[in-house]
Design brief:
Elements: H1 2-14, H2 25-33, E1 37-38, E2 43-44, H3 58-65, H4 68-73, H5 86-90, E3 98-104, E4 107-112, E5 115-119, E6 153-155, H6 166-173, E7 178-182, H7 185-191, E8 199-202, E9 207-210, E10 213-218, E11 238-242, E12 247-250, H8 259-267, E13 272-276, H9 291-301, E14 309-313, H10 327-339, E15 351-352, H11 385-393
Parallel strand pairs: 5-6, 6-7, 7-8, 12-13, 13-14
Antiparallel strand pairs: 1-2, 3-4, 3-15, 4-5, 9-10, 10-11, 11-12
Helix pairs in contact: 8-9, 9-10, 10-11
Length: 394
């Protein structure tokens, strides 16, 4: 028994640092006590069961994914535009107390009621455990991570590589900032040099207070894991950040589920919702949302009313699904117009004030091939009345 235990310990020490660490001791016991942890199966549970993928083989999916014509659609034809003055813009104090800067993918800096919160910071070149393989960025980071200046809290949604990035965490750990994370993720961060006193691990519906803000972990429909073995011993979450005057929501990664309405009732309405609308596929319908589902989730969070501003995230930075790289932007634009919903389309690094004029230009069209629109009926007009109204109001 001792020899086997020593062997397991030795093997763990040899695995890549980027794989992180498994929860042990008091952390593991807390995980097992969670009402969202399935004791019999030893895994965290989603809010509802999985959806069935369409008929067809995985081989068929892979064949389509690696077709030359399909690969060409998944990357821009030219240089993807990044906002050129991010650093200068961030030095200006946000007049209404809320400024939102999408840095690409799910990385967002939110300046809210005098505090600064950084969601899912991924400044690495690849979302992978290896520097030489894995999905590579389609655009550079708009500004250096250190140039952002101090942040009061770094919030992580879950431990997948495109949301929890080892190089970024290690750089942020040197700043002394707090990390607010779902259950179990603290084990990764401690292995990477984050001091335990700088960690706050939350279960769904638990809150912590940082710099005058209440940060609450809320449910999401996804999964976890960084190594070949996925033990489901870390939780995934969406997040609510509430200040004295403003409220925002970050979806993390999630499939659509009815719980968005419950989150909105308990914590909304929101000035801004940051909603995952990319990396969807019929082959994984329960873990990522299509743009149409993302707009529906936003409306659920707002009590069914087209209020607040929707910021699409989880698209345009990494190639993680078979759809065209800019398709999420076009589809969200159509779905939001149909719903009469205000939506912001900033270039990566472009700050905006949700109460002011929103960035609306479909900037991706300058570097994207023509995008087929299977979500739109043949002959349907590109611009709806809702789109015109939003353009006039914002």
């Amino acid at each position: 028994m001792t020899d086997a235990r020593s062997l397991r310990s030795e093997l763990r020490s040899l695995r890549p640092l980027a794989f992180g660490a498994d929860a042990t001791g008091a952390r593991l016991e807390r995980i097992r006590r969670s009402p969202h942890f399935d004791q019999a199966r030893g895994v965290f549970r989603n809010p509802e069961g999985p959806k069935a993928p369409p008929p067809g083989s995985r081989l068929e999916f892979l064949q389509n994914y690696f077709r030359k014509d399909q690969r060409a659609l998944r990357a821009p034809e030219g240089t993807l535009p990044v906002h050129p003055t991010t650093l200068a813009d961030l030095t200006r104090e946000p007049a209404p107390g809320l400024r939102v800067t999408w840095m690409g993918h799910s990385s967002v800096l939110v300046e809210i009621d005098g505090a600064r919160v950084l969601f899912d910071p991924v400044w690495g070149e690849r979302c992978s455990p290896f520097s030489f393989a894995g999905p590579k960025r389609l655009h550079p980071a708009p500004v250096g991570l250190e140039a952002l200046g101090p942040v009061d809290a770094v919030v992580i949604s879950h431990d997948h590589y495109d949301h929890l990035d080892l190089p970024s965490v290690r750089r942020l750990a040197r700043t002394g900032t707090l990390f607010v994370v779902p259950l179990g993720i603290g084990a990764h961060l401690e292995r990477w040099g984050v001091a335990p006193e700088r960690l706050r691990e939350l279960d769904w519906h638990e809150s912590t207070r940082v710099a005058g803000l209440d940060l609450t972990a809320t449910p999401a429909r996804h999964f976890c894991g960084r190594g070949l073995r996925n033990q489901q011993h870390t939780l995934w979450a969406s997040w609510v950040v509430a200040g004295p005057e403003h409220r925002v929501y970050h979806s993390g990664d999630t499939g659509y589920f009815p719980g968005f309405g419950d989150i909105g009732t308990a914590h909304g309405p929101f000035d801004t919702t940051m909603i995952q609308i990319g990396a969807y596929s019929p082959y994984w319908p329960d873990i990522h949302m299509t743009p149409e589902e993302g707009v529906r989730a936003h409306l659920d969070l707002q009590g069914g009313s087209p209020s607040g501003v929707l910021l699409p995230i989880h698209w345009g930075t990494f190639n993680l699904a078979p759809h065209a790289w800019a398709e999420p932007g076009e589809w969200t634009r159509d779905a939001a117009a149909e719903a009469g919903q205000a939506v912001a389309f900033p270039r990566p690094g472009q700050p905006f004030d949700p109460a002011g004029e929103l960035p609306r230009e479909p900037w991706w069209r300058a570097v994207s091939p023509a995008i087929a629109r299977p979500w739109r009926a043949e002959g349907e007009a590109e611009t709806s009345r809702g789109d015109l109204d939003l353009a006039g109001e914002r």
